[in-house]
Amino acid sequence: MIQTVRQTGWMVVRQARNLAREPIWIAMMVIQPMLWLLLYGQLFSKVTPLRAGASSYVEFLAPGIICMNAFFSGSWSGMAMISDLDRHVIDRFLAAPASRLAIILSQIVRAGVTAVLQAIILLAIGYILGVRVHGGVPGFLAVFAAAFLLAAVFAGFSHGIALLLRREASMIASATFVQLPLMFLSSILIGVALMPGWIREVSRFNPVNWGVQAARNGVVFDGPWGATAIYLLLLVAATAATCAFATWSFRAYQRSI
Amino acid sequence: MDAIVAEDLRKRYKTVQALDGVSFSVREGEVFGLLGPNGAGKSTTVRVLTTLTRPDSGRALVAGEDVVRHPNRVRRAIGYVAQDSGVDWEATGRENLLLQGRIHGMAGPSLHARVAELLEMLGIADAADRVARGYSGGMKRRLDIALGLVHRPRVLFLDEPTTGLDPEARAAMWVEVERLSAEEGLSILLTTHYLEEADRLAERVAIVSRGRIVVEGAPEALKAGLHGESVTLELAEADHRGEEAAAVVRSIDGTSEVKVEGRHVRSRVPNGAQAIPAILSALDGRGFPVASVTTARPSLDDVYLHYTGREFAAEDEEGKQ
User: Do A95 and B51 touch (CB under 8 A)?
Assistant: First the structure.
């Protein structure tokens, strides 16, 4: 157990250091969420009903974009696994006493921390555009937890798929297949009240929507904290499930080599 | 205690029986060569012994531990240098080695000292703090070996250690393996599809063909076991009559394993000096002028041909497809 935690830590260090050596990646990590916020914020700014009680559409949108960004980057994060598989780094770890859980957890932590950093950047940009976090300290905690957990849920899923498919093209296809439906079946862009009835029903089972609701409670509505905690706990459970799936996928991978 | 014991290992991938009952043992401290063409099952054997994949049936002990029941105990005792480099390209040589040591539970100044020692030993100390993406093939291979040695394993697996290296780097690698065996007292399992590599490095070899071990022994003993010499005749006229010439050679008493390769006719005889005059006069009498004759003591190539009935090179090409 202690060994797994230590190994997770060292593997997170490895990924952070390797990514820090990719200036393009850092630039994209910073610029892309800003573009989302500015473009969507402008596009729908005149449609007053969309903002569902927020003081401006961009304030309504900011927590949504934070969550969208987190689950997008989580669902792409399996590409790192493909590259490690292609370069046989994973085989080297597996023939050494590396914990499979640590390999997965390190990727999940990396995706989660990245999402939190991007959330900070988005809130800073948002501040300039008039976005305020009305929930205070618990509000900040809720939005960061939502970002971390959404990235974690989808990183676990993405790494499981990466271990099963092991090909970049298949990864891209499956990530794209998941991303857009989950985005539109959530309240990222519009309030729940404006959704058609069936989408509202479906969105209750969409982990992306759990994150958006929690983050929006923190930024826009200042509560209710009980419901927010439940959304976050659901995301913790979903993370455990996808993480278990990814760890299990190692077996399928090892059977095939 | 033997370093490795493999008993009747079998493994099937969908349509291919990769291992069809592989059994052999490697003694403590020896360099053992698994020799065979591409696709013979060498790498699958290594993947089973290094716990990367499980056999369908059979049993294997590495450093005294069962690979299926106690994989983590095996992992702590072995170093694995895969056929394909497992180097993390975006990390420096030193960072690669430090992480590998940490996975093995090493830490602190002793880990740093061990890493520095290995970088020095394998001649990559100058490049230690450069990102491995820029390393040459030979340097990556050296780093791979260092990665396999960080935790001072008792058994080292080298899967095709010189494939893809230029001749100079290959020669350097041979020296390195000899040094590891002599100075570190490691038990080494080496797989190769280069006959001369097994001949040079391995104290004992097992020849693998189509998922089975066909013969096992010291290279010298295997060659001596063949008795006699190989005679290669080069026909002067390349007019596709090789098979007819081969038939003539076959008709002579004492010749065996007669094969045609282009304008060369190869055969095995008990004694070259005695057989050559008879072969030459028979060919001459039937109108086959001979350009040159060479005799050679048996090579592992001949051993392979003898035990499998197939040409090593042809089998190797087939295995690549």
Answer: yes
